[in-house]
Design goal:
Elements (H helix, E strand, L loop, with lengths): L1 E5 L3 H12 L3 E5 L3 H8 L10 H10 L3 E4 L2 H7 L2 E4 L14 H12 L5 E5 L7 H12 L6 E5 L9 H6 L4 E4 L3 H10 L7 E4 L1 H31 L4 H9 L20 H14 L5 H25 L6 E5 L14 H11 L3 E5 L4 H7 L7 E3 L3 H5 L4 E4 L4 H4 L3 H7 L4 E4 L6 H6 L3 E3 L5
Parallel strand pairs: 1-2, 1-4, 2-3, 4-5, 5-6, 7-8, 9-10, 9-12, 10-11, 12-13, 13-14
Helix pairs in contact: 1-3, 5-6, 9-11, 9-12, 11-12, 12-13
Bound molecules: uridine-5'-diphosphate-glucuronic acid.
Length: 434
């Protein structure tokens, strides 16, 4: 069985490498030639821990190859995983034009039975449209099946998540499609949940929106903590001890970012509207998330009063640690707000600076990129923690304090112990804690 993976973004590249590592013969393709050129040479176009090593290993053992030509990849494959992006449109809905385009090409190249598997996050009912496109454009009476197999990997631990999944959701409507997918995921047989396609599609959107809701909920609680003597970390800990709630995704901070949660929350709201179901709940989740940035910038103003011409070190630009991804990163909004106030920014991130430079080009003294956190804080009036990279947790705060103009920390990720930071002589602000 040959598996074609169409689209080699975060999900596609990890899927291609992961399936190859599970022993399958995988062909990856993408419309961006550079991604294919790089992948063929064993180079990842994204930073994802452990991915490049596995890519190289599976290129070498022959399980994995990359191809520029989509038609040839379709013709050569028995199963096609569609991993193209579904970007957000102005109205919050997902742009499905890439999925439609790929479906058409599959139809036009349908030379033998193929199983078409949606891997990208798609609105419920997408499979119905894929089926319609395949039926409309196929040139012969070759049969096909469509299935949904949403991906739950997290950036930063994508390889681990793919190879150690909590669950494999398989949405199918024929026994043939079910058998093929069960064979592909044979290793994880004990974790497979077979459903119909609508259910599988909805499981993905519902999971991401629920996790985003947990985050906004704790961020709202953190605002209440700041008005009282409560400590949000302990509130989250106390809540998380209830197994019905669980300890995960209750970290208060600057809110969720990335390519998934913001987009998926809005897409589910929109799907609800289209189908006559009121999802104001998720509108509120989104609103609270946006407010986190404002609340954080207010803290910076509370600490420094006037931001114009103040030198502010911003540590952490990626939307979360262990990735170079800056899509919907809270840092972008924080930087924009601080720039509006006329602050001078020294930015640092272990992995995401190249990507950020394209968005905020270096322009001294307004925006400077530093080669280390210590360089960024030199002469700074305040240090902001925006992403919780481990490197920042390990900083020598005494050294930091000596080189800052004013020892002020505004910690958007609750990285440090408030008492210790104050003992060292810092004016210290964090989220939902005194
Ligand atoms: C998320 C889901 O966790 C994956 O299961 C899913 O496959 C993926 O979206 C997707 O749809 O492709 P990801 O966006 O990579 O994964 O990152 P997460 O680790 O889920 O974090 C999302 C955001 O929430 C980050 O900005 C993070 O900083 C924030 N977050 C997370 C919090 O603010 N508090 C928390 O307690 C947890």
């Amino acid at each position: 069985m040959k598996i074609g993976v169409i689209g080699t973004g975060y999900v596609g590249l990890v899927t291609a490498v992961g399936l190859a590592d599970m022993g399958h013969r995988v062909l990856g393709t993408d419309i961006v030639a550079e991604k294919i050129d790089k992948a063929s040479q064993g180079i990842c176009h994204i930073y994802e821990p452990g991915l490049e090593e596995l890519l190289k290993k599976n290129l070498k053992n022959g399980n994995l190859s990359f191809h520029h030509n989509l038609d040839e990849t379709i013709i050569a494959s028995d199963v096609l995983f569609v991993c193209v992006n579904t970007p957000q449109r102005e109205d919050g809905s997902a742009d499905m034009s890439y999925v439609e385009g790929v479906s058409r090409r599959i139809a036009e190249n349908l030379n033998s039975y193929k199983l078409v598997v949606e891997k990208s996050t798609v609105p419920v009912k997408t499979s119905m449209w894929i089926k319609k496109v395949l039926t409309l454009y196929k040139k012969n009476d070759t049969s096909f099946d469509v299935a949904s197999n949403p991906e739950f990997l997290r950036e930063g631990s994508a390889v681990y998540d793919f190879l150690n999944p909590d669950r494999i959701i398989i949405g199918v409507e024929t026994e043939r499609a079910k058998d093929i997918l069960i064979r592909i995921y044979d290793k994880f047989r004990d974790r497979i949940l077979v459903t119909n396609i609508d259910t599988a599609e909805l499981i993905k959107h519902a999971s991401n929106s629920f996790l985003a809701t947990k985050i906004s909920f704790i961020n709202l609680i953190s605002e209440l903590c700041e008005k009282t003597e409560a400590d949000v970390e302990l509130v989250a800990k106390g809540m998380g001890l209830d197994p019905r709630i669980g300890p995960h995704f209750l970290r208060a901070g600057l809110g969720y970012g990335g390519s998934c949660f913001p987009k998926d929350v809005r897409a589910l709201t929109r799907i609800g509207e289209d189908l006559g179901v009121d999802f104001s709940l998720l509108k509120e989740v989104d609103r609270i998330n946006t407010r986190c940035i404002r609340v954080f910038v207010e803290k910076v103003k509370k600490a420094l009063w006037i931001l114009k011409d103040k030198k502010i070190a911003v540590l952490g630009l990626s939307f979360k640690p262990e990735t170079d991804d800056i899509r919907n990163a809270p840092s972008i909004h924080v930087i924009e707000e601080l720039q509006r106030e006329g602050a001078h920014l020294c930015l640092y991130d272990p992995k995401a600076m190249d990507k950020m430079k394209r968005l905020f080009p270096e322009k001294s003294p307004q925006v400077i990129y530093s080669s280390s956190p210590y360089e960024a804080v030199q002469g700074a009036n305040a240090m902001l923690i925006v992403t919780e990279w481990h490197e920042f947790k390990e900083l020598n705060l005494e050294k930091v304090k000596k080189s800052m103009a004013n020892p002020i920390i505004i910690d958007g990720r609750n990285l440090y112990n408030p008492e210790k930071a104050r003992e060292l002589g810092f004016e210290y602000y964090s989220i939902g804690r005194k």
